[in-house]
Amino acid sequence: MKFTVSGKILSTAACVMLALSAPALGVAADTIKFGIAGPHSGDLAPYGLPSVSAAKLVIDKVNANGGIKGKKIEILQEDDVCKPEISTNTATKLVSSGVQVVLGHICSGATIAAMPIYKDAGILVMSPSATSDELTSSGKYPNFFRTIAPNALQSPAMIDFAINKLGKKKIAIIHDKGDYGKPLAEGAKLHVEKTGKGQVVLFEGITPGAPDYSAIVQKIKEAGAEVVVFGGYHPEASKIVSIMNKKRLGIKFVSDDGVNGDAFIKLAGEDAEGVYATGPQDTSANPLALKAKEEHKKAYNSDPGMFFDGAYAATVVMLNAIEKSGSTKLEDLKKVLQADKVDTPVGAINFDAKGDAVGLGYSMYVVEKGKYIVVK
Amino acid sequence: MDVFKELKKGVLLSLWFVFLTFPVMVIKVDHIARTVTWRWENALYMAVGTFFIYFVVQLFRKKQENRKEGQDSKEPSLSIIHRILLHRSQRNVLLAFIAVVAILFPQFLSIYQTNVMTTALMYVVLGLGLNIVVGLAGLLDLGFVAFYAVGAYTYALLNLHFGLGFWTVLPLGGLLAATFGILLGFPVLRLRGDYLAIVTLGFGEIIRLVLENWGEFSKGPSGISGISRPSFFGVEMSLESSIIYIYYLMVLLVIFTIFVVNRLQDSRLGRAWIALREDEIACQAMGVDKRKTKLVAFSLGAFWAGIMGVVFAAKTTFVNPASFTFLESAIILAIVVLGGMGSIVGVLFGALILILMPEYLRALSQYRMLAFGAILVCMMVFRPQGLIANIRRTYTFKKKTPNSLAK
Amino acid sequence: MDYFIELLFSGLTRGSIYALIALGYTMVYGIIGLINFAHGEIYMIGAFTAFIVATVLSIYGFPLLAIVIIAGIAAVVWASSYGYTIEKIAYKPLRHAPRLSPLISAIGMSIFLQNYILLAQTSDFLRFPRLIPDFAFMEPIAHIIGSTDLVILVTTVVVMVALTFIIKFTLIGKAMRATSQDRTMAMLVGINVNWVISATFIIGSGLAAIGGLLIASHIGQINFYIGFLAGIKAFTAAVLGGIGSIPGAVLGSLILGLTESFATGYVSSDYEDVFAFSLLVLILIFKPSGLLGKATNQKV
């Protein structure tokens, strides 16, 4: 028989994968409802899923020990695909299903869009990753906290390092036009102008996902830049660094915490060597961070991903606040969060009145032999 | 004998799919740790899954064929909806039922459900707007989201800088989007078909990129937050009542849009659009001003998108360029085509299904977009004319002779 | 002057990248008049297959040359199989459906395939091994053009010539041309139209796979989403050159690549895509069926 396959027959198999999925949701009665929101599907999922596994690790441990004051913690996980318009639905859904605290959201834009809804409901929200200055410094969101330092600290950290430590004056600032990278780059530019020690020779945005960045790299060279400061995420950074090496540019590359992490090193390989990136203060010596990493390895058989430490920390401090205050009311939780210093994978933290973690800042890291190490 | 043949086909098909999905389903490599994981069980699932689905579809097709044979081939089969709509008393009952459900919806269901329904209703209006351009005038527009963005930013910016309220900006947003529709319409008048499609796609991207890059004007990718929600005669509302308020507002807007689009369809202009869609040259020969007709189609379609943009900005209280990507245009287009091009009822159903489905499939979380893609394909394969195809206006010309000719 | 030459080669590289994808687009469009939105995804699957096969082989210690050849063949075989299967599933049943239905089907297929790879493999960006080593003789001009870029340029030219040859002089090429001109007539003269369409998809997908392999090797990373953006740009390029025309696709791609490169170099990369799309609109205003597309007079 000749192997002919008719269209309609084949069309069936398009649905094969559908058959393989079946959701199972268990509902328990008297529990503490812990919401997790962030991108859990789509292209930004790598930024959101590690938070889910971090929270699960912590909560499973607490539940195994009998929960908080006899109450088990129930996770409600909602996807916002990092889109503001979806995240308002996500937030409404979490609020109407009665969550008491929320870990998330991940992207600043989605967080800003969702915050008014949580604010009206008086729910504590803590993000491991949203760095937008507006969230805390505007004072508009008294229920917002984060376990990551704001952008306002990060841009100066990059620039000061490039000027003072590397001794470079001519700076090219590149960003990915996104809601994370561009404000960072703008902050960096402002800082250069403010300090007056350096000069911005190029300020430009690149198109994320473009197949080739050689034109912009040539432009960096033509502008006579001595150092590149990049605001954006690791895929673009990796592409630029690799093309800079291919074009034999030989100038330093300084970037932000979106580039700091194993993901970047894995992606850029040998091109990653010598790349500088700001990152949350050094946690490599922190036994809790190492322990969290071990737990993740044991449970999922892989290294943790982006914002894992921050999410782990956020879960720990939120649960601590619930336990100490014996309540889930925002005011009670806030008191504990502000007063109590808790040991977490990102260090011992409490929060200031605006919602930023006290003492969290940025350190500069450099890739050496396939590892990020702190620049002293 | 037949069963044996079918079995053989099913087995061959399963083998083919096992082969096809082998590298991505079975092998998983870790290039850093330099390990290979062979997931043979996936190949087995694949084979069994394909085999099973093959037989389900075969059964389905058999049934369909049997039904077709049983039907009188001369009578054009109408969907249930159309049959009800044609019948006056039944139609009134249906409309009354829908009205009651729409009014009571927020009273009985949670705020979340209301919010989701509002989103779906917004897409109904967007779909109806695009339906004018694609369904009636037959101009394939892949950049419809640009007008949506224009509306949203009109409200966001006017609210930010001048504190203008929702009701003032609602018509302004629509009008500005309509103006952009004409601006886009001019250069592309000569283009047809797929050339038009790519230019509109480009236009959509340009609008988004300008919003992204022109930071002084639009605040760039960080977007604009803290946009006021619509007020009710100057009364500020809590979040909950505001969501319900926007819901009722959307219900009214949907009714209004349906009314207008329905009237447009039957107007001189609507007929000109349909004629243009069917045959441009014949249409021009009949004295229809092609230029004007196309431009009006573009601007009217854009008008609704602009209005929805204003509602969108008011509902989320936050806009940034990332909300207006090509995928959004594709979803609106999918609503129109899935529902049935040119059919108002179809667009209604299309929007409700496409917007509500992913929202309720959330439990499936990561499988949701996969299912969305698969359903789009399956729908098109099994019902290419859309869920509820438009009934073509037919004129029956009865000759005096006994054999009547239906045309 | 140096800067100009550097930008010129950047543009040419980018243009050839677009061209490798655009060729498949234009072939499919030429035969059945369908914008195959899933074409970008085929390119992505080709790159993934190459990645998986190359990694497995390198773990088992094969030499580089063998890896390149086997990974290339595997990418082409699987991508072609996907192209063939997708046509049978999503487009063939729709051949007589309203014109927009296959387009929606294609968009659905594209979303499906992205998420299929996302679920079956990973959502992370993966490092694509460098399959083409730095040639020693290229070192003096490495700041202008890298060895991978050179291979991409050469491949584009070879592929274009080969395709033109196939279409002009071989039997299948003649059948393709006949099918594209008038499907019904082609059937009447005994051409197996289904087979011709399948062949078109197979060849187009194979090309996309070669593109996937080379481009992924050039940018050094892959992810389930790479096909979408590249697909849209390649489609723009194909339309610019006149969709349905093989040299047109290459010309359009090169023009698009050069425009983007010079726009970045002399103006600003902020508006790179704005320039690209504005150019498209401008060209289409003056030549409504693209640069090398045939202006068809509609018969009534």
Strand arrangement, largest sheet of chain B? 1-2
Gross morphology of chain C is globular
Overall geometry of chain B comes to globular
Tally of helical runs of chain C: 11
From the helix content, strand content and strand pairing of chain B, which structural class follows? mainly alpha
Number of domains of chain C: 1
Strand order within the widest sheet of chain C?
Answer: 1-2
C-alpha termini separation of chain B: 45 Å
Which pair of protein chains has the largest interface, and what are the residue counts? B-C, 61 and 69 residues
What structural class do you assign from the helix and strand content of chain C? mainly alpha
Sheet with the most strands of chain B? 2 strands, antiparallel
Q: What is the rounded Rg of chain B? A: 25 Å
Q: How much β-strand is present in the residues of chain C?
A: under 5%
| Total DSSP E strands of chain B | 4
Report what the structure shows.
- The complex is a heterotrimer of chains A (376), B (407) and C (300).
- Chain A has 376 residues and is of the alpha/beta class.
- Chain A folds into two domains: 31-148 and 286-361, Rossmann fold (3-Layer(aba) Sandwich); 152-256, Response regulator (Rossmann fold), CATH 3.40.50.2300.
- Helix content of chain A is 43%, strand content 19%.
- Chain A contains 14 helices and 14 strands.
- In chain A, the strands form three sheets. A seven-stranded mixed β-sheet of chain A has the order 7-6-8-9-10-13-14, covered by helices on one side.
- In chain A, helix 13 packs across helix 14.
- The longest helix of chain A has 20 residues, at 45-64.
- Chain B has 407 residues and is mostly helical.
- Helix content of chain B is 72%, strand content 3%.
- Chain B contains 16 helices and four strands.
- Chain B has helices spanning 2-26, 40-70, 80-86, 88-108, 111-136, 145-162, 166-188, 194-213, 215-218, 239-266, 268-278, 280-285, 290-316, 326-339, 344-360, 368-382; strands at residues 27-30, 35-38, 224-225, 318-319.
- Chain B has a two-stranded antiparallel ribbon.
- In chain B, helix 5 runs antiparallel to helix 13 (290-316).
- The longest helix of chain B is centred in the first third of the chain and has 31 residues, at 40-70.
- The radius of gyration of chain B is 25 Å and the shape is globular.
- With 300 residues, chain C is an all-alpha fold.
- Chain C has one domain (2-286): Orthogonal Bundle (ABC transporter involved in vitamin B12 uptake, BtuC).
- Chain C contains eleven helices and two strands; from the N terminus they run H-H-H-H-E-H-H-H-H-E-H-H-H.
- Chain C has a two-stranded antiparallel ribbon with strand order 1-2.
- The N and C termini of chain C lie far apart (54 Å).
- The interface between B and C is large, with 61 and 69 residues.
